[in-house]
Amino acid sequence: MRITKVDTFTIDVPQKPPVAPYQSRYVATSRTGALLVRLETEKGLVGWGEAPQLMAFHNRTPYTGREASDFRQKLIGRDATAIESLYADKLFTDPYLQSAVEMACWDLLGKLCGQPLYRLLGGMVRERVAVACCMGIQTSEKAAEIARGYVAAGFGTLKMKGGRRAEEDLGMVRAIREAVGDKLKLRVDPNTGYSPEAALQLARDFEPYELEYFEQPMPDDLIDDSARIRKLTKTPLGLNESVTTLASVQEILCKQAADVLLPDTYQCGGLWACKLIGDWSAAAGVTCVFHCAHDFGLKTAAMLHVVASSPNFPLANDCTYYGLEDDFITEPFAIEGGCIAVPHGPGLGVTVDERKLKKYLVGSSL
Q1: How far is Cα 265 from Cα 102, in angstroms, rounded to an integer?
Q2: pLDDT of 333 strictly over 90
Q3: Whole-prediction pTM
Q4: How far, in whole angstroms, is CA 71 from its chain's centroid?
Q5: Distance CA 9, CA 48 (A)
Q6: Strands, sheet with 361-364, edge to edge from the N-terminal-most edge strand
Q7: Helix 166-180 to helix 140-152 angle, to the nearest 10 degrees?
Q8: CA distances from 3 to 89, 91, 247, 298 (A)
Q9: CA distance 239 to 300
Q10: In degrees, to the nearest 5, what angle opens at C-alpha 230 toward C-alphas 247 and 162?
Q11: Of 7, 95, 194, 336, which has the highest C-beta tally within 10 A?
């Protein structure tokens, strides 16, 4: 099944409270952007992929929607079902772009076979996927208010941002526990904001509050420090920014540097890599959680299929989908009781609404 046409689009959609404004240690944002890739084959099948527009976080040049001109030559005439070769041939140096193309190829493969992706990835182990609500950095009072709202909405797990000051992070955790007790499992993500010494002290300060895990408190290359700190605190340690290639995962697992790994398509190059990381981690007794990057319906669907077919994603997976003002798929996902039902249609199981796509379009290859 050969690729005959390649298009790319950039979109931008407002967020709504309680997700907006989403303050990390880097930046506050009230909008969500993404690059979309559309592949068409000689059989007339169309596949879609999505990569996040996380430029402020990673010092990247913003997508314009004209990226197809840069890699159309690489893809036209290529077998869309030869997904593993995207990794083996090193067709893309940018894992963001590869992840969007790879996702579109999986969508095409599912449509060609008439099967949902979870079947092609090993079959279903769960019909509904638990998701965690998310919160940016807030005052302690606002954090408590938002946490109470999330409990009322049926969520069971909360991930909060941090990393500016240890006292600020500890104050939010304390306020949330005082407001809702143990009704929410709690995760803290400083986005690499602390030195090893500061991370260890904060992990120890968190011990009375029984975090589900403390996510990536230090820069991504400090794997030895992560391994050391794990032995010195009762607070479980998670790694996300460190989880990129299979080689990086092998180092983390061999050094026993984390209790939880958080792979994501745009960091690892695609959903197949995330699936493999889940399996590798299971063999080492390390649990995985699927990370999110303010995802729209395509990337949310990809997460659902990977998690639905992978036993080693038993915890609530990151999600800010409920914070979108709108989505560009025809049937947006509903979150009920902190869970999303896995779609059963072929491929990703979702359909792009071109009217909505045009509404939120900020660039394209057309």
Answers
A1: 9
A2: yes
A3: 0.96
A4: 24
A5: 11
A6: 46-52, 31-41, 3-14, 361-364
A7: 40
A8: 17, 15, 30, 20
A9: 21
A10: 90
A11: 194
> Residue 64: which pLDDT band, with cuts at 50, 70 and 90?
confident
Q: Are strands 46-52 and 237-239 parallel, antiparallel or unpaired?
A: unpaired
Q: What value does the mean pLDDT take over residues 147-158? A: 98
Tell me how far apart the alpha carbons of residues 248 and 142 are, in angstroms, rounded to a whole number: 37
Name the CATH topology of 119-341: TIM Barrel (3.20.20)
CATH superfamily of 3-114+353-364: Enolase-like, N-terminal domain (3.30.390.10)
Phi first, then psi, for residue 327 (nearest 5°) are: -130, 160
Other beta carbons within 10 Å of 334:
10
pLDDT score recorded for residue 240: 98
| The 3-state secondary structure of the chain, one letter per residue | CEEEEEEEEEEEEEECCCCCCEECCCCEECEEEEEEEEEEECCCCEEEEEEECCHHHHCCCCCCCCCHHHHHHHHCCCECCCCHHHHHCCCCCCHHHHHHHHHHHHHHHHHHHCCEHHHHCCCCCCCEEEEEEEECCCCHHHHHHHHHHHHHCCCCEEEEECCCCHHHHHHHHHHHHHHHCCCCEEEEECCCCCCHHHHHHHHHHHHHHCCCEEECCCCCCCHHHHHHHHCCCCCCEEECCCCCCHHHHHHHHHCCCCCEECCCHHHHCCHHHHHHHHHHHHHCCCEECCCCCCCCHHHHHHHHHHHHCCCCCCCCEECCHHHECCCCECCCCCEECCEEECCCCCECCCCECHHHHHHCEEEECC
Q: Which two tokens stand for residue 261?
A: 């790994």
Q: Which residues of 26-39 are buried (b: 16+ CB within 10 A; e: fewer)?
A: beebeebbbbbbbb
pLDDT tens digits, 77-117 = 999 999 999 999 999 999 999 999 999 999 999 999 999 99
What is the residue whose two structure tokens read 């036993």? 311
Dig out the tokens for 210 from the structure. Answer: 């029984």
Query: Which amino acid is residue 250, in one-letter code?
Result: Q
Q: With bands split at pLDDT 50, 70 and 90, how would you rate the model's confidence at 366?
A: very low
Domain boundary assignment for the chain: 3-114+353-364, 119-341
